[in-house]
């Protein structure tokens, strides 16, 4: 749904680079190059980005508005 704030394995903060990564991917850059560009070097942190699936559009219709 939402990218985790920290890597599950090493605990490094990774969420602050998500927007920049998405912009590079939208611009047509390869995933390996985009990860290198934003500074994600550890393979455990790279796994968090590579395996992430955006599910918010599927879950949002089932949420209820708060009053």
What does this structure look like?
By secondary structure, the chain is mainly alpha-helical. It is 43% helix and 0% strand. The protein contains 4 helices and no strands. Helix 1 runs antiparallel to helix 2.
Please supply descriptive tags for the structure shown above.
67 residues, 4 helices
Strand content: under 5%
Query: Whole-number radius of gyration?
Result: 14 Å
How much helicity do the residues have?
40-55%
Separation of the first and last Cα atoms: 23 Å
Order of helical and strand elements: HHHH
Approximate shape: globular
- Count every helix, treating DSSP H or I runs of 4 or more residues as helices: 4
Major beta sheet, specifics? Answer: none
Helix-strand category: mainly alpha
Please describe the topology of this protein:
Layout lengths: L17 H9 L4 H8 L4 H8 L5 H4 L8
In short:
With 67 residues, this protein is mostly helical. The chain has helices at 18-26, 31-38, 43-50, 56-59.
């Amino acid at each position: 749904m939402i990218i985790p704030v920290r890597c599950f394995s090493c605990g490094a903060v990774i969420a602050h680079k998500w927007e920049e990564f998405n912009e590079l991917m939208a611009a047509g850059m390869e995933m390996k190059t985009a990860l290198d560009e934003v500074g994600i070097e550890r393979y455990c942190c790279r796994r968090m980005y590579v395996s992430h699936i955006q599910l918010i559009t599927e879950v949002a219709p089932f949420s209820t508005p708060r009053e």
